[in-house]
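Whiteboard transcription, Tuesday session. T.W. wrote the structure tokens on the left side:
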């Protein structure tokens, strides 16, 4: 019975992958990073991922994508896809390699966690998002590490129990990465991991601590308001609250008070001596960027004087971030411990 289920599943995965490949590459008005994320997630989750793609990201028609994806819950899904694609890719790679070494299952899980975290943070987050930080890779790592950590923990919170329980009770003797059962288990685990990671991604987007996915290119109704090359590909990534209020805050240069049209002082009597500094307050120094909405980064920003361009999507104190990270690890270890009661997690053979 299971071989038939596995066969049907992979037929559906193939159809789903071809569908999202065509749709994302031909008609989806989002950044290439978001397109890649959706393609990978659908490759891992098949028809389930394709259904979520149609519900939350696929443009219903020309010029309608921005409105269709504006809801915060959809922004949360699109934001999570970027994390899930990177984390699952690292986990899949590690899971395909570790059987060769015949480690205890606990060692396998540690390696898979490290691989998923490394690929998610250093490649899918920092490397692919570095243009949001003027090409500064180290800054990109620092800005994305918080959201990646809590997201990764929530992904693994779902994937570890799913992998161990399926392997132990439903599909014993799954075999290595050359078997269909192995990839079926990994697909099911990715689906569960996506479900458990959604609440934290939704919360981060809603609080403006993580970007969502918005329209770019010709379908972007605010394309003419974006300035500079950097706004081209990534300017569509707004936080949840920003998306709810439309694209306010993108009129960056229009918000500055204009001094044109003020009465000319030419011809007025000359006042010899040093010019007086009395009068209106001085506006010396760099122009203020208050009220702007930053499109930077995948994670929360920490208040720093050297922050690139002085922009942040949202801010949490170091203490608050530490508490969030600690809570995510606590939930992750609790899930692993509960799973261990049914399927022993061992570190020595």
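and on the right, the sequence the group agreed on:
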């Amino acid at each position: 019975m299971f071989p038939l289920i596995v066969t049907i599943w992979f037929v559906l995965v193939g159809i789903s992958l071809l569908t999202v490949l065509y749709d994302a590459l031909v008609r989806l008005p989002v950044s290439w990073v978001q397109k890649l994320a959706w393609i990978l997630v659908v490759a891992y989750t098949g028809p389930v991922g394709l259904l979520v793609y149609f519900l939350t990201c696929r443009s219903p028609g020309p010029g309608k994508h921005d409105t269709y994806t504006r809801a915060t819950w959809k922004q949360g899904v699109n934001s999570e896809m970027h994390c899930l694609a990177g984390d699952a890719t690292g986990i899949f790679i590690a899971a395909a390699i570790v059987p060769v070494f015949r480690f205890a299952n606990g060692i396998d899980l540690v390696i898979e966690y490290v691989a998923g975290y490394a690929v998610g943070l250093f490649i899918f987050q920092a490397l692919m998002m570095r243009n949001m930080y003027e090409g500064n890779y180290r800054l990109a790592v620092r800005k994305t590490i918080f959201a990646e950590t809590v997201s990764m923990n929530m992904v693994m919170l779902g994937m570890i129990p799913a992998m161990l329980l399926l392997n132990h009770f439903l599909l014993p003797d799954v075999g290595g990465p050359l078997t269909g059962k192995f990839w079926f288990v990994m697909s099911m685990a990715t689906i569960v991991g996506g479900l458990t990671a959604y609440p934290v991604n939704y919360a981060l987007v809603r609080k403006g601590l993580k970007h969502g996915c918005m329209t770019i290119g010709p379908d972007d109704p605010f394309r003419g308001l974006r300035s500079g090359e950097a706004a081209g590909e990534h300017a569509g990534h707004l936080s949840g609250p920003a998306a709810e209020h439309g694209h306010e805050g993108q009129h960056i240069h229009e918000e500055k008070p204009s001094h044109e049209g003020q009465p000319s002082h030419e011809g007025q009597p000359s006042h010899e001596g040093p010019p007086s500094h009395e009068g209106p307050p001085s506006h010396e120094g760099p122009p203020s960027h208050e009220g702007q909405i930053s499109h930077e980064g995948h994670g929360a920003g920490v208040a720093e004087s050297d922050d690139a361009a002085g922009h942040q999507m949202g801010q949490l104190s170091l203490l608050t971030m530490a508490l969030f990270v600690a809570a995510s690890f606590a939930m992750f270890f609790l899930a692993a411990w509960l799973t261990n009661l049914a399927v022993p997690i061992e570190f020595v053979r």
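Someone added at the bottom: The two ends are 32 Å apart (CA to CA).
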